[in-house]
Amino acid sequence: MIAGAEHCGPGGCKLRIAGVSKVFDGRRGKVVALEGINLNIRGGEFVCLVGASGCGKTSLLNIIAGLEFPSSGVVELDGEPVTGPGRDRTVMFQESALFPWLDVLGNVMFGLKLVPGLTRGDRLAMAEKNLEDNTFDFTTWEEVKEMAQGKGGFARTKWCGSLECELAMKEKAGVSSRCMPLKQSGTVGKCPVCGKECITDIYWGVAY
Question: What letter would DSSP give residue 170?
Fold first, then answer.
């Protein structure tokens, strides 16, 4: 790994990792995930961590993100110690990051709670706009599975309003789904389960 501060040049390092180690308490004793990691990264530099499963890549990224703390060593961003999560860093998780206890709208609004100065009405309007812009209609169960691609996503279909049809949709789609409050679309369609004509759209949060 690049250890020297001279790598960053006159402007200094955007991210500095010095002597970072991480030790977990395992069932059979201590597990050393990281030991003596030193890394300096310039602003705008692109760096990949490559290694076998379990070598500590995720642990290091979590420490940089402030989601975990090192057992020893220090991480600095713009010269300031990383002491927790912040809006100056972004984490893209490998798996679906949907909260199963929230509906679709709640999941979209969650991140907006971290934005200062927004009222609940502001967050609601922004979430509904993003749902409208990033939602896909589906007509077959294969389409909703393909759309999710094993990660997660949003889908929309007609719904007659009955709980029985909602449960049947979830079972037939073969996915773990969360439904947001209903929205009247104004266009007539058929419920894919019972075939009844309706104008109600139901939004899904799809995650395997």
Answer: H
